[in-house]
Fold this protein.
Amino acid sequence: MSDNAYTPIYQRLFNFYKERIINQEYLPDERIDSINRIVSRHNVSRETAKLVLLKLSEDGFIIKKAGKGSFVTYTRQIQKAWGIVIPFYSSNIEELIRLLDIEAAKLDRKIRYFLHYNEPQEEMRMVGTLVREGYEAVIVVPNYDESMTAKFYRGLNQGNSIVVLVDNTMGGSFFNYIIQSYDLGVKRAFNYLITRNNKNLLFVKNEAWIGKYLVYELMEQSLQVFINRLAPDRKLFVISGLDKFDKDYIINNNIGGIICFADTDSLRITGRISMWGIKMPEEVSVVSYGNTELTQLANPAVTAVDCNYQEMARLTASLICRDSKSRDTRQHVIQPELIVRQT
C-alpha cells in the first residue's frame, strides 16, 4: 500500500497546490482554484475543498479576498541573505561558494547553500521556495540538463529577489547569468596538450550524478572538432570516472594528454601516473579544469584551466546590487586562462 493511502485527502490536495505554487505553476498574485473548482476537479466534498484553502491560507501560500477569491501570495519583505542552489558538492563549487561568501560579507549579507543532487524538480522547488521566502538573491548552479528547467526559468516570477544562473550553465539570453566560456577553456587545454607529444588524448568526465550533462557534451564535441581540424592523426578517448583508468589503458591507447573535468580526479590521476613510473609531462601531460587550491598544492602541481571563480563571484555580487535598483537582464561570459605547472 502506498504512503498516499495513509495521507488524508485534504493533506494530499494541500501538497498538490503547495508544490504548484512553489514551482510557480500558479504565479504570485494569480487566482487559485475556487471551492467549486476544487470540488469538480478533484471529486471531493465542499468541506474538504474549504479545508484545503484554509490550510493554504494559514501557511501563507494564499490570501483570501472577499468577493474575489483566493490569490497566491509571495514575501514582499526581503531577507539580507543570498541562497545558493547547487546540484552537487565538489572542490570547484566549494571554491565558488567561498568566494561568494567573501563578496556577500562585504555587503553585510549571509550565504546559505542548498543541495538538490542534480534533480531538476528539486532545483525548481528550492528556487521557488527561496523566492517566496524573500531572499535578496538566489544564485543557481543549474543541474546537468538545463532543458529540464528552461521553461521554469523563462516563466519565473522573481518577486523581490534577484535570480542569477552561474558557472556550469548554458543559460539563454532571457535570464541573468554569469557563465565561463567552456569552448575557450577546452581549446586552450587542447592547444597545450598537442604541443607536448604526438599521442592520443583522453577526456575524463566525472559522472557521479545521474542524468544528461550538457556541458560535458559541449566539451567533448569541441575536443573532437579540434582534433579533426588540427590533429587528425590522433584519437580522442572519453571515460566517465576512473574505474577503467589504469596503466594498461594509457599504454594500449597510446595516451599522451589528459583533460580532467574535476580537480579532485586530476589529483587521483596524477597520483596514479606517478605511482606507475610514467613521467609527467614528458610521457603524459595532464590538464585539470577548475584551478582550485588542490591543483596548486598537489605534488606535482597540476596544470589547470582557471575558471576565474573570483571574477565570477565579483560579477555576481555587482549584478545583484545593480539589479536591486534595475531589473534589466545582464549576461557575462568569463574567459578561462591556462595556468601551466608541472604536469
